[in-house]
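Hey L., structure's done. Input below.
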Amino acid sequence: MPRWLRLGLLVASSTMLLLVAAALVAVHVLLQPERITAMLQSQARNAGLELNLASPATPALFPRPALELEGITLNAQGASMPILLAARGTLALPWRTLFRGETVISQMRIDSPRVDLDALQSWLADLPSGPATLPVEIPRIDAGIHITRGSLVRGNQMLLGDVALDAGRLAPAHPFVLTITAKDGHGTPTSMRLSLTPRIDGGALRLDHIALHLAHDSTVTLQLAGNARWRGAADASASLSGKIDHAGTGAYATSVALTPANESSPLMLALKLDGPDNHADLHLPPLALADWWAQLDHDDVPTLSVPPGSGHAEIEHVDTGGIRIEGLTIQAGDDVPAPASTSVAPAAKPADAKPASPRKTP
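Output:
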């Protein structure tokens, strides 16, 4: 090899090594892992949460600037039970972060997160009850969120396992797509696909062109489409319609409508279902309904009570967790007439009224 060529290769390789070393130093100095970690912890504290890492965040350059997080723990302030545990995570950053010093996250990847439902519900219950404020603009996530090997638990009970989540780009007036796949506690696959277009319009957050598809194994599928709007606090409205397909019983026409709260009424959910052996026309306060449903699917043996709200429902059977309810008929509210073949009996004394107990299945 000619001497001039050897010298040229030596100079080129030395220059390349210097550039790589300079880039690594620049990554650490410009990304400032301590600053971004402190920012994330500050945002968590503002939400009443504590974020901790097993080791300091590590910067990376290729294939794009990023921060590697190890041993992620997220819990409510002062609580011993973590809401989220994750083995590792990656925060991908745009290249402009190296030159402008902006704290912008283009993609978030989380591996093996474990979310405890009881800890999450406890944190939500302790949040201030004041009116929620509408965001001035929709937060941007350029490249989305990617979660693998996740799980949802309640204490030691596995609710969902092998959770995989992919969320696309989030930006105003841009179609947003979210897909989730998981397996329930019995290993049955469940999937969800949600698409919508968010925008801020006239002081309200609008969710247009909503398309929701849920599937549980090959037995039950739900499809809904419509629009929604939120102006802050309980000023929310939505209108969705579609159908439920059940492999064993047939198709059910379904509609869901959300009516905003006012001075005399809380936020209300209108649910209609019409199909073989199942009919429902219910008006329910969604927050109280969530508490009622949680009692049905809790580890302790629940006491079955009439859900809050008004309307009527005739359901052949309900399966939730280890609970099976057959021949469920609900009539609630003053505007529901009694069946013509029955007479209205005197109201039972409080001491004589006994709530029905559901039957547990093995």
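The chain has three domains: 22-128+138-179, 188-276, 287-337+347-362. Helices lie at 3-31, 33-46, 96-100, 117-125, 286-296.

-- N.
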